Known about the structure:
Elements: H1 7-16, H2 18-40, H3 45-75
Helix pairs in contact: 1-3, 2-3
Amino acid sequence: MKQSDYRWMVKVGPVWSIPFLIPISTGIGLWLGIWLDGKLGTKPWLAIVLTILGLASGIYESAKILINVTREDNND
């Protein structure tokens, strides 16, 4: 097979990470917020703020991946 027959695998790899990015980044924000709330006594404010920031960062990174994959697709 030609090299170009396997190019789809290079594009699919980053897209497969998207279902993991959003819940993992949200979970890390939640965990860090709960931990900091316990240390600083600010329950539940840091958990809420850091969970929202984690969710936003997961969505942002997912959008960047999709933009890069579609941009590469248009250049072919």
